[in-house]
Structure formats: C-alpha cells, structure tokens
Write a structure and sequence with these properties.
single chain; 407 residues; Double Stranded RNA Binding Domain; hpI Integrase, Chain A; 3 domains; three-stranded antiparallel β-sheet
Length: 407
C-alpha cells in the first residue's frame, strides 16, 4: 500500500504496474486512493467501513475525467455520508453533482417559467458550461467564478458580464437551498464595473435604412425586425410571440411574458396587422416566429449582424453607428414625443410602470390608455411609412417554400 501526498503532476506521472493493480493512498485524505491497473487505467476509489463493519470500496471516478481536486471533493462528500451512517454507494451518481447537471436541473426547476428561460439557458450553455466542463459544482470557487466573469468583461461585454454574474448568483443560491452545495461562491461577490446607461436614438434616416435592411432579410428575422419597429415591444416579447396572444387587433401578453410582471396590451396598427397576416403558420406550432416549431427563434446575434450588413449596403457601404435592437424602443419613444404624443401614453405603449405612473399615481391611476395607444402606434406607423416612402399597406412578400403548414 503506497501512501503519499498526491499532486496533479504526480498523479499524471504514476506508471502502471507490471501486473495486477496498485493503490496509491492520498496522505491527509483517509481512505482516498488512486487505483492504477497494469493496463494503464487510473481510478479514484474510497475505502470505508460503515458502522464498524467490513471494509468496503466505492469507485468515485476515472482519471483524467476526474482530476485530483474533484476526487477530493467527491471523497469529502462520501466521507460525510459515512459520518452520518449513510451508505455513500447509494447516493446519486457523481455525474449528477457536476456543474452541468446541476445547471440543467436549475433551469428545469427554477427557470422554466421565466420569460427569458431560453436566453438564460443560452448564456449558461455558451459561456459557463464549457469553462467548467466535467467539474463538480461543489469544487467551483470564487476564483473560478471571477475567471469566467473577467474573461467576458475583458472582451468588452460589461453589461453581459453583469448578467452572467446575476444568473450564477441565483443558480448557486438555489443549489445551496437544495442541499447540493454548502456555500454560494458568488455570495458578496461584487458585480463587474458599472452599467453604462445607453442613450442611443436612431435618426429618421437611420430608421429608414434599418427598415429597408429588414426587407432584405428572409423569414423569420426580416418580418420580426419590422414588427419590432412597428410595436416598440421588447425583443423577447415579439421573438416568443404566440398565435394565441394575437386577438382582436392587438397583442395580449400575460405578466409572465413581460419584464415588469404586469399584463401588457399592444394595439396593432394597420401596418402591423398586415405584417402579421402575411406570416406563415408553421404546422402545429404555437409560436409566430420559429424555425423548429417547438421553440421560439434563436440566433439573435447572427441575425443582427446580417441586419447590419444589409444596412451598410443600403447606406453606401457605411455601417450604422453602434446600435442595438433595444435602441429601437428609445427611438420610437423619442419619435412619438416629436409627433406630439403625451408621455403617459408613450410609457403605456412601451409597457413602463415607472416614470409618470410610478408611486402613488400608479396605485390610483388605473387607466389603460388602450385607445390612446392604438392612435399613437397608428401615428408612428404612418410616420415610419413616410420615412421609407412606402404605402401603408405595403407588405414584404414571403417565399412560398418557407410555409411549413396550412394557416
């Protein structure tokens, strides 16, 4: 029986025996050993006695998929179970304790009803899971979290880094509550930097370019971008729009689908109604904009890049200065104000409950402004048509082969 203080380098250097197998016990971690067989395989095992009975052996994982730090974490969990009189072999598989599995469980149980569930999943899958591939969630430290967030910050995505910080804080807090881990490594960890308040408003000329660029993009994002420009709605409100939410010349969103948790009605202007009427129905899908039929559209970054590319072509090969889709809401609000529409109506169009409707006013002022919102959006649609020299009834036709099912 070999006993030594194992290191990462030492574990990698250990040679297989000529025959049989050899156990290298990790000094300072009673019962934890690296079992090396003559064939070259290396396996982490834990030897223990339950209630003073016979010696038992539990396989924790295989090296190098399970590294030294993860093996020690698994050993700690198994030893803790033995201390409670529990058989560690009957605990759930170690794979279920890995970060990826815990994150999937969190998305399923804590985030499934979140209106931005798909966006949160995309963030975790793209920017976090690859960094902690195969890691036990209990082995992730504050330093690990900082490494992920700092890498995002360093590429210039400060606001996105703050979003990742918030998602991870909730994920780890949920994991503590479920007894998966003992401590939240994000607790009291400051958010990166300060949020830069954006004030970008597209000019009338830029709005016209963006609208024309959208007409050059095929289903589903071309029509989607135009509907965003006609409604002033948030990206996810239109991106995840369901056919059942369109009724009586308006879009009716429940609180679960809005940022502030309040129901929101979006009257449809004539132009917006015509855009919707021109859209294909994907067979048996509840979503208006979908490529799979089962989920809303994804790939916003690629679609925005394509929109920018088309805009540059229309604009004498000059890209529109730094702008985001969310800037359209600010642009529409500013445009409506120039058209003489009152602030309370503009806020109602955008679905804001702060501003003029905050505090005691919001408690007693329950007027929905539905009629005023319809007039405002119709006025905005007519103004938009005048900017691009289009008749109000013009609809960009869709190619027939994109229609996957009967309406």
């Amino acid at each position: 029986m070999a006993k030594r203080s194992l290191t990462v380098a030492a574990v990698a250097r250990i040679k297989p025996p000529a025959t049989g197998q050899t156990d290298y016990f990790d000094k300072g971690y009673p019962g934890l050993a690296l079992r090396v067989s003559y064939g070259g395989s290396k396996t982490w095992v834990f030897f223990y006695r339950l209630d003073g009975g016979k010696l038992r052996r539990l396989t924790l994982g295989r090296f190098p998929a399970m590294e030294l730090a993860d093996a020690r974490t698994a050993w700690q969990d198994a030893r803790k179970a033995v201390g409670k009189g529990e058989n560690p072999a009957r605990r759930k598989p170690v794979a279920a304790d890995r970060f990826a599995a815990a994150a999937d469980e969190w998305l399923k149980r804590d985030q499934v009803h979140n209106r931005s569930h798909h966006e949160v999943k995309r963030v975790i899958d793209r920017d976090v899971k690859p960094q902690w591939d195969g890691r036990l969630i209990s082995s992730i430290t504050r330093r690990d979290v900082l490494d992920v967030i700092d890498a995002i910050t360093d590429r210039g995505a400060l606001t996105y880094a703050r979003r990742v910080h918030a998602h991870l804080h909730r994920l780890f807090r949920w994991s503590v509550g479920r007894g998966i881990i003992d401590n939240n490594p994000v607790a009291d960890l400051p958010k990166p930097g300060a949020v830069v308040k954006r004030d970008r408003v597209l000019s009338d000329a830029e709005v016209a370019v963006a609208w024309k660029a959208a007409s050059q993009i095929e289903w589903p994002f071309g029509p989607l971008f135009r509907l965003l420009m006609l409604t002033g709605a948030r990206r996810e409100e239109i991106g995840a729009l369901r056919w059942s939410e369109i009724q009586g010349g308006k879009i009716e969103l429940e609180g679960i689908r809005t940022k502030n948790g309040e129901p929101h009605t979006i009257p449809l202007s004539t132009a917006a109604s015509e855009q919707i009427e021109s859209l294909p129905h994907i067979a048996k899908s509840e979503y208006v904009f979908t490529t799979t039929g089962a989920t809303p559209v994804s790939g916003w970054s690629r679609a925005k890049a394509l929109l920018d590319e088309q805009a540059a072509k229309i604009n004498d090969n000059r890209a529109l200065p730094d702008w985001r889709l969310h800037d359209l809401r600010r642009t529409i609000a500013t445009g409506m104000q120039r058209l003489g529409i009152g602030l309370p109506v503009i806020e109602a169009v955008l679905g804001h409950i702060a501003g003029s409707r905050a505090g005691i006013v919001g408690v007693y002022q329950r007027h929905t402004y539905d009629a005023e919102k319809r007039t405002a959006l119709e006025t905005w649609a007519q103004h938009l048509a005048s900017l691009v020299n289009e008749k109000r009834s013009e609809v960009i036709p869709l190619r027939r082969h994109h229609k996957a099912g009967p309406p």
